Amino acid sequence: MATGRTHRPATRSRGIPEATVARLPLYLRALTALSERSVPTVSSEELAAAAGVNSAKLRKDFSYLGSYGTRGVGYDVEYLVYQISRELGLTQDWPVVIVGIGNLGAALANYGGFASRGFRVAALIDADPAMAGKPVAGIPVQHTDDLEKIIEDNGVSIGVIATPAGAAQQVCDRLVGAGVTSILNFAPTVLSVPDGVDVRKVDLSIELQILAFHEQRKAGEEPALETAAGDGAQPAAASREAAAAAAPAASADQGPDGDVPAVMPA
Amino acid sequence: MATGRTHRPATRSRGIPEATVARLPLYLRALTALSERSVPTVSSEELAAAAGVNSAKLRKDFSYLGSYGTRGVGYDVEYLVYQISRELGLTQDWPVVIVGIGNLGAALANYGGFASRGFRVAALIDADPAMAGKPVAGIPVQHTDDLEKIIEDNGVSIGVIATPAGAAQQVCDRLVGAGVTSILNFAPTVLSVPDGVDVRKVDLSIELQILAFHEQRKAGEEPALETAAGDGAQPAAASREAAAAAAPAASADQGPDGDVPAVMPA
DNA sequence: ATGTCTTTGTGAACGCGTGCACAAAGATGG
DNA sequence: CCATCTTTGTGCACGCGTTCACAAAGACAT
């Protein structure tokens, strides 16, 4: 759902469906909250409500992990927290590098949710020499030149790309070349990676556009202000030119920053 | 997939599948890039490669929109850009408010991808009185007290929440109360919203955890360092206690900031 | 020990999304 | 005007994910 490569063998890793894996962190968060309130056990119904999912789905998800849980009682919170953490690989420490320390990169560096879940920001990397040495979130920024050495020295296998779109593929290649096998990409680009490397993408602009689509539908169909161009299905040359002439004025390519990413290039 | 409410009627809005809607922005981005290079037409094969998807999938996606495209030739880039933009509702201007101007909120405010795609940051809102009036990305931050008035005055229907987790639900309620019907949530919480309100969630921590899962699998199964606790399926009381005793020391609740969000509370 | 009551775990049905493979459509050249 | 060639649009099959509904399992009271 968020891969860079065209074909992915539907990575059903070990019998645990991908959709289930994506929900485990959700359950873990809800369970952690319960744990902090010293709640000993939860029923699937309660936990599902807290996680915002269907209870049957939750039970089936857990069934892939094993038969934890006691009929008539529910699930032991602490035990389940441990099992999910272990399944997700959160019982070990994952050093992470963030490349591109603009606004977004800095926000990520300051993100508390990383450290509290087994992730550790091992290094911050930026291409701007002026940023080198400057501390962000208590960690000094290092220059891109040292990227490979940083990766290897720290045994980093997870990289976060928060650079402008133009630099993302190049950074990605260097990360992969240095041994990184999992990438979280915030740059609005499709990354090409060799097999065996996982890419997940977070695209703010896309999320907003999806919301806009539903918003437009909610607003109803009657406010069809632009009745000019082809709403039908006749792609005649005439209507095309009309559309092409009418569209750009609206919002398409109004500036040279068509694909500027979430961070300042630095 | 990213809703806050438990039950959603699988919002297949108008015959256009949700999965297709989620890919339209991807196609739009690729098409915009082609448009800037003044490429007149593309084949489904080329465009699919640029967007990182299967060409058959792309053709089927477009078939939901109508029969744009010419057999033997391909798709007219400008025409398609317009059609997709219109379908996504990007031909109109969407005023957006961002609530919670911490690191992440500031990054979002500076995000160029918004303005270039029909979105306009109408206002920045923060609960910290000290931030009021201070300009971020050229826009003065306003105080939460005026939230309702800001929403109504600007006719805002899309809100972005970048506050700490603790404040998210409250902010959400006020946004919805003021008329917002689409929310992009960056706070690590499950939001409860009434029917008719769309919520999409972006959770950095969850993405990383999913990567960690696959990373752990790639590393193989042999490094099973913790051979102590239940790998089998016998949830006996004894093994539970052992697990519960061993786990918390690892990484679960090591601090009181279990769910700190992506921004400083301000 | 037995019965009742709660909650899990899962078999089975259904619907959505994906990808193949091909016929229809149109462009292009002779 | 006809033949050929490219590329679209889609019927079809398959697999994954979701949900229902219920039997099995265990807690708890008597």
Describe the structure.
- 2 copies of one chain form a homodimer.
- In chain A, helix 8 links the parallel strand 7 and strand 8.
- The N terminus and C terminus of chain A are likely disordered.
- The first copy, chain A, contains 10 helices and 9 strands.
- With 266 residues, chain A is an alpha/beta fold.
- Among the domains of chain A are: 71 residues, Arc Repressor Mutant, subunit A, CATH 1.10.10; 111 residues, NAD(P)-binding Rossmann-like Domain (Rossmann fold, 3-Layer(aba) Sandwich).
- The first copy, chain A, is globular, with a radius of gyration of 23 Å.
- At the A-B interface, helix 1, helix 2, helix 4, helix 5 and helix 6 of A face helix 1, helix 2, helix 4, helix 5 and helix 6 of B.
- Chain A binds a DNA duplex (30 and 30 nucleotides) through helix 1 and helix 3.
- Chains A, B: GO terms for molecular function: DNA binding; DNA-binding transcription factor activity.
- Chains A, B: InterPro entries: CoA-bd, NAD(P)-bd_dom_sf, Rex_actinobacterial-type, Rex_DNA-bd_C_dom, Tscrpt_rep_Rex, WH-like_DNA-bd_sf, WH_DNA-bd_sf.
- Chains A, B: Its main location: cytoplasm.
- Chains A, B: It is found in: Cytoplasm.
